[in-house]
């Protein structure tokens, strides 16, 4: 309750402060128009003298910085200082091996807070990075838009009864305020990071963060700045990772910034090693299941069963198979070649053989509860970029609890064992956006966030260590195995985002089409 009260007070304080700030600006503008700076030459000498003396008792025009500070001091007196967040309970940092139950424990906790905790968000690493990028993009776009006097940010000024020069002064003061507040871009992003845009809720008492990684300079700087800010304002963090906090940044990128994050994590979270070498996903019961969702090898019989499942499921939907385009972040879109009422079909090359990344996969996973993927090859060094994208794809389909039907060249366990071309090794780290997006965003956050360059230019390319590569392989295999189990498949209806949209009553949710029983 304390945190709920804090967010309510913070929301009221922010709105009250903005109203008072505009009122003070209008008062200053009225004084200037009456004779402070731009004096009507038609006015008499006595009127001008009185106006100048009145102006001298208000505020000396000694620069935007002093004006801004004086205005902020007045606001502190009128509205009060920003509410102080209550002391938050310690969060949790869970780390351990693949399949040890880290994400399951975090999700159980997150599910238990539904209806109890008003302000809460759950992110996977890729999704969090993309949201950070999106907020940064909004900040930069707003900066560009606000350079124009016709910007929507200044629309409240246009209707005021002032001369053009007075309005220009007001716009200048507004621009200066925005520039001052956005000087440290990561703090500006952190304050918006936990906004639920659909529900229009601000803030969060709980942040659940799955698979924390520091794979490059951007991740180190962004996570350090944003998590430190959130933890300092009362947010409770429950996180998972394959590494202990002190082992997250073994390459030593941005060491000073990283050490600040470690200190904040140590202060705010209890570290718990989920210490087992056992992959519990492999122990999920499969008895009684007559469905096959992973067809291998790609023989004519396997292909026929795969095609039959596609037709069974799409026929049950009662709609036509069409090609559609869905929006992706950063103003992009992706074409879905075969789409049918929440069911989509692709081949491996289309999803993993092109310059796409997690933004595209998240868009697909949010829009489709059932995904068909054919022609999945055994991975080798020859197609390491495709293997990298495939792992990211599996991560996002799993995180959004999609049903996945595959036609592959090899068994799940042999997918990443290499081929006659050689073993699969030296896998580059996961991409969470296309190169065209990532290069500018990473470069600019380093400049805007007052961070130096990394230890080398290859730091921005984010090459994972061999240990991390093997963890990525094992995680993808473990998740693919779980995605075939009845327990996972039964929960698609309850968990997938398309069935959890606001206003969709539980008894009105469409059923997930089921394939015909195997003969």
UniProtKB/TrEMBL annotation:
Q: Name one GO molecular function term.
A: ATP binding
Keyword line: ATP-binding, Nucleotide-binding
Domain AAA+ ATPase residue range list: 88-278
Q: Which SMART domains is this protein grouped with?
A: AAA
Entry's PANTHER family?
A: AFG1-LIKE ATPASE, ATPASE N2B
Q: Which family does it belong to?
A: Belongs to the AFG1 ATPase family.
Enumerate the NCBIfam families for this protein. Answer: ZapE
Q: What is this protein called?
A: AAA+ ATPase domain-containing protein
Naturally occurring in which organism (per UniProt) = Zea mays
């Amino acid at each position: 309750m304390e945190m709920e009260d804090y967010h309510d007070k913070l929301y009221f304080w922010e709105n009250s402060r903005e109203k008072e700030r505009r009122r003070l600006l209008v008062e200053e503008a009225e004084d200037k128009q009456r004779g402070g700076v731009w004096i009507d030459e038609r006015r008499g000498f006595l009127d001008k003298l009185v106006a100048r003396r009145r102006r001298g008792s208000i505020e000396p025009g000694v620069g935007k910085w002093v004006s801004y500070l004086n205005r902020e001091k007045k606001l502190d007196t009128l509205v009060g200082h920003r509410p102080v967040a209550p002391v938050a309970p310690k969060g949790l940092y869970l780390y351990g091996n693949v399949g040890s139950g880290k994400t399951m424990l975090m999700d159980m906790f997150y599910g238990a807070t539904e209806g109890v905790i008003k302000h809460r968000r759950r992110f996977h690493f890729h999704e969090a990075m993309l949201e950070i990028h999106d907020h940064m993009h909004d900040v930069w776009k707003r900066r560009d838009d606000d350079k124009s006097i016709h910007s929507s940010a200044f629309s409240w000024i246009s209707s005021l009864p002032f001369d053009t020069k007075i309005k220009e002064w007001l716009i200048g003061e507004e621009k200066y305020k925005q520039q001052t507040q956005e000087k440290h871009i990561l703090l500006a992003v952190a304050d918006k990071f936990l906004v639920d845009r659909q529900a229009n809720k601000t803030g969060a008492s709980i942040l659940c963060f799955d698979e924390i990684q520091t794979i490059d300079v951007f991740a180190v700087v962004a996570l350090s700045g944003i998590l430190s800010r959130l933890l300092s304002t009362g947010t409770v963090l429950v996180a998972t990772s394959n590494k202990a906090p002190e082992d997250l940044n073994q390459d030593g990128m941005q060491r000073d910034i990283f050490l600040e994050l470690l200190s904040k994590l140590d202060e705010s979270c209890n570290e718990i090693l989920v210490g087992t070498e056992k992959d519990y996903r492999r122990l999920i019961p499969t008895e009684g299941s007559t469905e096959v969702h992973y067809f291998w090898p790609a023989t004519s019989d396997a292909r026929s069963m795969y095609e039959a499942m596609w037709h069974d499921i799409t026929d049950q939907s009662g709609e036509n198979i069409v090609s559609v385009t869905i929006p992706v972040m950063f103003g992009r879109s992706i074409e879905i070649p075969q789409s049918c009422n929440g069911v989509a079909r692709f081949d491996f090359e289309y999803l993993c053989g092109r310059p796409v990344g997690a933004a595209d996969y998240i868009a697909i996973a949010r829009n489709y509860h059932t995904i068909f993927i054919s022609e999945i090859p055994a991975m080798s060094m020859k197609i390491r970029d495709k293997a990298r994208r495939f792992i990211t794809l599996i991560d996002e389909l799993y995180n959004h609890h999609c049903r996945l039907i595959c036609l592959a060249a090899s068994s799940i366990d042999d997918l990443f064992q290499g081929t006659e071309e050689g073993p699969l090794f030296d896998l580059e780290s996961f991409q969470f956006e296309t190169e065209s997006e990532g290069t500018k965003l990473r470069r600019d956050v380093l400049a805007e966030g007052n961070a130096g360059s990394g230890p080398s230019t290859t730091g921005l390319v984010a090459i994972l260590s061999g240990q991390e590569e093997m963890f990525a392989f094992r995680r993808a295999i473990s998740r693919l195995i779980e995605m075939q189990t009845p327990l996972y498949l039964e929960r698609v209806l309850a968990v997938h985002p398309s069935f959890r949209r606001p206003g969709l009553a539980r008894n009105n949710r469409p059923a997930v089409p089921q394939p015909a029983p195997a003969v």
